[in-house]
Design brief:
alpha/beta, Rossmann fold, nine-stranded mixed sheet, three-stranded antiparallel sheet, 48% helix, AB_hydrolase_fold, phospholipase activity, transmembrane helix, ABHD16_N, EC 3.1.1.23
């Protein structure tokens, strides 16, 4: 009876990964049938085949889940309609509650039938036995056996806790349960007295901003967190996860962040290969509709690096919602996991981000200054200009206030706090992070990210002359035009390198540098162009085109 109850309440099983016959080991979990552990099939993996009763009951419950999601998103309109029609009176609500209760009882009965179907399936009984054993005892053997199954990630046991590193328990400066530290935006109106009356006046605007951010804003900014989209992508995500596990020998893990969110991760270890880049770990930060199963992890994987992918809060197996604080909390536990559990030193970790993933990558670079390098692909400097692009001009004040207070993705500000090597990849036909049209390359916010970084690190070089010539170089629409501008100013790379190395040897590597202070305007132009070319690579593609492995290069450093 206990096993039947476990089958009723157990998670949905999607796929069973099978090892080759020569690599199989007998099960160490008591009560696991040997005939099920070693099936006669020689294939490495199989989709789980539910019995007819489980299959049909699961379909009904899945359909009910979709209807519930649709009802949730349309509930404000439905309540307004019912109110106008007078259906919210007590005489109408009571019969409706009876219908709803009956429907819930029917769905509970369907769930019990599904459990009976699972109970009659030896594959599911074996799975639930291993899952229960792993929850009781987190031994390496139990985890190895559980890794052969792909199931609802909510039931996966936690592999790493944010407080697990001993340094976190002893230090008072680490993250609290409220979250890690973020850079806070400056007040919109400086010098205004923060009196009680002013707070009361601001309250309606603050409430409106909160409602916009937590309803429309968050879903527009992170469409991958919408349940219906995830449901539609489920077959693709399962296929991508199978590829990572089967072909790349990936290891899945659940991390518990300081805010209680559970973060879904996948680690591919290349340290045992002959390729030297396998000793480096690339932590990948996905876009606003990206998942590690089908996202940018493929680029460093093809290049031979060890890779750690993770999903945003609210994406696929990760719980929570993707607000900036939750994003930073998730990134913090991912980096801690890489250092304290996977055994990589910060000097061997590279942060690679695509699009909106630049926020978490720049936060990690700012918070972990010993990180080896940062690569930002198709990323931007600040969210406000991009948000204003897609919203009515009359909403400018509301949009700016909402972003600054609740969705403040200040990538450039965070990146300027990092002292290490940085490479920016600009898509020349990017249709997402341009503020006008894709053909207008100067409206690409990647340009502003580069300019802010160079102006912070080399303020004397990026004075009037240097800034002007870099803008000309950024405006070039082809490699031929870029080379023409570069040669027009007769940039001597050896001279630029010698100037920078001499300054570094005399003053140290810490930014900002005062190099160029006593230099001619021509010299500043040369240095500005040289530095711009070293920090930005163009990729002739649109925003969502996968980056080829040959374009995945380490950033320049002296």
């Amino acid at each position: 009876m206990a096993k039947l109850l476990s089958c009723v309440l157990g998670p949905r099983l999607y796929k069973i990964y099978r090892e080759r016959d020569s690599e199989r080991a007998p099960s160490s979990v008591p009560g696991t049938p040997t005939s099920v552990t070693n099936p006669h099939s020689s294939s490495w993996d199989t989709y789980y085949q539910p019995r007819a009763l489980e299959k049909h009951a699961d379909s009904i419950l899945a359909l009910a889940s979709v209807f519930w999601s649709i009802s949730y998103y349309s509930s404000p309109f439905a309540f307004f309609y019912l109110y106008r029609k007078g259906y919210l009176s007590l005489s109408k609500v009571v019969p409706f509650s009876h219908y709803a209760g009956t429907l819930l009882l029917l769905l509970a009965g369907v769930a019990c039938l599904r459990g009976i179907g699972r109970w009659t399936n030896p594959q599911y009984r074996q799975f639930i036995t291993i899952l229960e054993a792993t929850h009781r005892n987190h031994s390496a053997e139990n985890k190895r056996q559980l890794a052969n199954y792909n199931f609802d990630f909510r039931s996966w046991p936690v592999d790493f806790h944010w407080e697990e590193p001993s340094s976190r328990k002893e230090s008072r400066g680490g993250p609290s349960r409220w979250g890690v530290a973020l850079l806070r935006p400056e007040p919109l109106h400086r010098g205004t007295a923060d009196t009680f009356l002013n707070r009361v006046k601001k309250l309606p605007c603050q409430i409106t901003s909160y409602l916009v951010a937590h309803t429309l804003g968050r879903r527009m900014l992170y469409p991958g967190s919408v349940y219906l989209l995830q449901k539609a992508l489920m077959p693709v995500l399962l296929q991508g996860q199978a590829r990572l596990v089967e072909e790349c020998h990936g290891r899945r893990a659940k991390l518990l962040a300081c805010d209680g969110n559970e973060i879904d991760t996948m680690f591919v270890d290349r340290r045992g290969t002959a390729e030297p880049q396998g000793q480096k770990l690339v932590i990948c930060c996905e876009g606003n509709a990206g998942f590690y199963e089908v996202g940018c992890v493929s680029t460093p994987l093809e290049a031979g690096y060890s890779v750690l992918g993770w999903n945003h809060p609210g994406f696929a197996g990760s719980t929570g919602v993707p607000f900036p604080q939750n994003e930073a909390n998730a990134m913090d536990v991912v980096v801690q996991f890489a250092i304290h559990r996977l055994g990589f030193q910060p000097q061997d970790i590279i942060l690679y981000a695509w699009s909106i993933g630049g926020f978490t990558a720049t936060w990690a670079a700012m918070s972990y200054p010993d990180i080896s390098a940062v690569i930002l692909d198709a990323s931007f400097d600040d969210l406000v200009p991009l948000a204003l692009k897609v919203m009515p001009d009359s909403w400018r004040g509301l949009v700016t206030r909402t972003v600054r207070q609740h969705l403040n993705l200040n990538n450039a500000e965070q990146l300027c706090r990092y002292q290490g090597p940085v490479l920016l990849i600009r898509r020349t036909r990017d249709e997402i992070i341009t503020t006008t049209v894709p053909e207008d390359i100067m409206s690409n916010r990647g340009n502003d990210l580069l300019l802010k970084l160079l102006q912070h690190r080399y303020p004397r070089v990026m004075a009037e002359e240097g800034l002007r010539v870099v803008r000309q170089w950024l405006e070039a629409s082809s490699q031929l035009e870029e080379a023409s501008i570069y040669s027009r100013w007769e940039v001597e790379e050896d001279w630029c390198l010698s100037v920078l190395r001499s300054y570094q040897a005399e003053h140290g590597p810490e930014f900002p540098w005062s190099v160029g202070e006593d230099m001619s305007a021509d010299g500043r132009r040369q240095l500005a162009l040289f530095l711009a070319q070293k920090h930005l690579n163009n990729f002739e593609a649109t925003h969502c085109t996968p980056l080829p492995a040959q374009n995945f290069q380490m950033p320049w450093h002296l």
